Amino acid sequence: MILRSVRGKSPEIGEDCFIAENATIVGEVSMGDQCSIWYNAVIRGDVHFIKMGNKVNVQDGAVIHCTYQKSPTTIGNNVSIGHNALVHGCTVKDNVLIGMGSIIMDDCIVESNSIIAAGAVLTQGTHVEAGSIYAGMPAKKIKDVSPELSSGEIDRIADAYVMYSSWFK
């Protein structure tokens, strides 16, 4: 793994986290407990801060970044960021599933208990209301998250990644 200080700021890693050997975490990045950062993921807090809560999984090839002096990135608890997703200068609240290959641009706010579908593109400043599913390019609300989707996808995937990461520790 690459853990590197930038401009005097160093990554802060919580308890019981897994970081893959070729993951990159640099600069002003803080993450909570039970997080997992998978193969080829990049979390680059060089131009602004990145703050992640507990039980966040950043899957293979995902990139988390921000915009210089303007848009930091804040991620809540129990969040899954799918393979090859791009999360940039935005706020993602608790219990969110960000699908594979999706893009979340600067100044977006993804409220709690939401799903961003695979391949969705949230253009700058999009506000995803709590409990919504957004899909498409540009992403729009397609429906509400049902209790079955909340437990069957959002919680299931976050819990599964805590288990998967235990296999590598």
Q: How does this structure look, described?
A:
Strands 1, 3, 5, 7, 8, 10, 11, 13, 14, 16 and 17 form an eleven-stranded parallel beta sheet that branches. An eight-stranded mixed beta sheet has the order 2-4-6-9-12-15-18-19. It has one helix and 19 strands. The chain has one helix at residues 147-166, and strands at 2-4, 18-19, 24-31, 36-37, 42-52, 57-58, 63-65, 73-75, 79-81, 86-88, 91-92, 96-98, 103-104, 109-110, 115-116, 121-122, 127-128, 132-136, 139-144. It is 12% helix and 39% strand. It has 169 residues and is mostly beta strands. The model has no long low-confidence stretch (mean pLDDT 97). The longest helix is centred in the last third of the chain and has 20 residues, at 147-166. A hairpin with a 2-residue loop joins β18 (132-136) and β19 (139-144).
